[in-house]
Write a sequence for this structure.
């Protein structure tokens, strides 16, 4: 035993001696190198220092790149506004909520996403005693959904029929504040529109209260699923109704639009148009647009599915915001036409749109190459289905602007789509007198031959009709 410990002690002593000798040798060698080669001894330390500085520089460069990427991303958001789509984990909190919320929770989370819209327009009608034209103020109300924002505007989606023909639009928010809005764009064919409010006009207190809606997947809906409708029912202000998805892919009776709707028994009343239909996650899955009103029908409301609406809304929300121009500056194209609705389209086998009965010789449309018999489908990228619709859009375009029209023209027995660029003129430049525009017809700016008494009587009757009846019976144009 003693012999064993003695051997261990000798081994340890030998190891210690070798270690000590190695250490002394390293120190000695280092001294010699430093004495005879002072520059070489610092290489390792210098290399390590340079490596550290490179790492720090790379880190700073990465941070700057991240900042630039963030700036580019912000710029992209400003230039290309996007809808806020729902995600599977529901991590988006602006308007959304957890699966299976109660109606109370859903209303609390989403009332700030929905607005009330008031459309004020001035109608000119000849009075019943024949004492001339009188102006009447017409006020209609609807709803809208806050869908996004840019540096300049807060963006709101609604129905086209809610804002169509408006001389002024005001929007009421959840905090009861009211602001002026302008139409960014509308598509009457699908009955959708986007309006904008200048961010500079909105109080901070309002911005703190409102939310941007989260857009859900309408294709995932099931019949019988519970839904909630929020809107400005009957113009009383925001209210909430609840029901179920009664049916999917429904046509609205007597509706010309070739589109499938969500049918719901949640109460949809006048004023709800443009409001939100939500699933129980708090996601907007439809835009309320119509109901069947009858003494023998109850609980049949319809909403445009968001999967159908999304492409149109995103296109409209990125359009240039326009304001109405003065009458003397408003664009004129020089046509007379009638609307071709779905029934007429099927009956005569022609495309829907505006059928040109006449193209005024020497007018902007004539100069651009439009012909009698052409059918206007789109104006500046947006569908137009009636002369009244086209006329209201021209109110936002100044004479001198160039606008693309998509038309259908019959060639070899088939209608072919063509793009025609029209340079707009003012009515004055075209030789049209606004004070007498319904009493005369022009050919290249010159008044045609005088009418007889019978024609004058017929024209007086024509002028006494509202625009809708003029269009229905005769067709009229700008």
């Amino acid at each position: 035993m003693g012999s064993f410990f003695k051997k261990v002690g000798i081994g340890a002593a030998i190891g210690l001696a070798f270690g000590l000798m190695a250490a002394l040798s390293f120190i000695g060698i280092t001294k010699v190198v430093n004495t005879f080669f002072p520059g070489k001894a610092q290489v390792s330390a210098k290399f390590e220092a340079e490596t550290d500085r490179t790492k720090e520089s790379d880190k700073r460069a990465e941070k700057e790149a991240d900042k630039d990427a963030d700036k580019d991303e912000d710029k992209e958001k400003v230039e290309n506004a996007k809808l806020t789509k729902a995600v599977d984990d529901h991590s988006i909190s602006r308007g959304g909520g957890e699966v299976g919320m109660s109606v109370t929770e859903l209303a609390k989370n989403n009332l700030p996403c929905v607005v009330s819209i008031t459309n004020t327009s001035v109608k000119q009608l000849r009075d019943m005693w024949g004492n001339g034209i009188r102006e009447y103020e017409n006020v209609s109300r609807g709803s809208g959904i806050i869908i996004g924002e840019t540096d300049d505007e807060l963006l709101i989606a609604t129905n086209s029929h809610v804002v169509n023909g408006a001389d002024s639009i005001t929007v009421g928010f959840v905090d009861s504040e009211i602001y002026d809005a302008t139409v960014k764009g509308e598509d009457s064919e699908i009955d959708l529109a986007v309006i904008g409010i200048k961010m500079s006009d909105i109080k901070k207190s309002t911005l703190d209260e409102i939310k941007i809606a989260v857009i859900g997947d309408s294709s995932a809906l099931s019949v019988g699923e519970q839904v909630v409708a929020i809107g400005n029912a009957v113009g009383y202000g925001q209210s909430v109704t609840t029901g179920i998805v009664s049916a999917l892919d429904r046509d609205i009776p007597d509706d010309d639009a070739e589109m499938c709707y969500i049918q719901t028994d949640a109460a949809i009343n006048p004023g709800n148009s443009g409001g939100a239909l939500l699933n129980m996650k708090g996601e907007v899955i439809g835009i309320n647009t119509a109901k069947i009103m009858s003494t023998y029908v109850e609980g049949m409301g319809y909403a445009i599915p968001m999967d159908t609406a999304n492409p149109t809304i995103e296109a409209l929300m990125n359009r240039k915001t326009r304001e109405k121009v003065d009458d003397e500056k408003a664009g004129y194209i020089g046509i007379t036409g009638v609307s071709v609705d779905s029934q007429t389209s099927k009956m005569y086998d022609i495309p829907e749109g505006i059928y040109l009965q006449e193209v005024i010789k020497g007018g902007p449309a004539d100069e651009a190459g439009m012909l009698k018999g052409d059918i206007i489908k789109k104006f500046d990228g947006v569908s137009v289905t009636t002369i009244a619709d086209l006329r209201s859009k021209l109110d936002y375009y100044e004479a001198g602007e160039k606008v693309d029209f998509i038309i259908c023209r019959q060639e070899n027995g088939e209608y072919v789509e063509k793009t025609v660029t029209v340079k707009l003129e003012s009515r004055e430049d075209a030789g049209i007198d606004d004070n007498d525009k319904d009493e005369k017809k022009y050919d290249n700016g010159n008044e045609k031959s005088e009418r007889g008494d019978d024609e004058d009587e017929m024209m007086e009757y024509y002028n006494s009709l509202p625009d809708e009846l003029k269009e229905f019976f005769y067709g009229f144009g700008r």
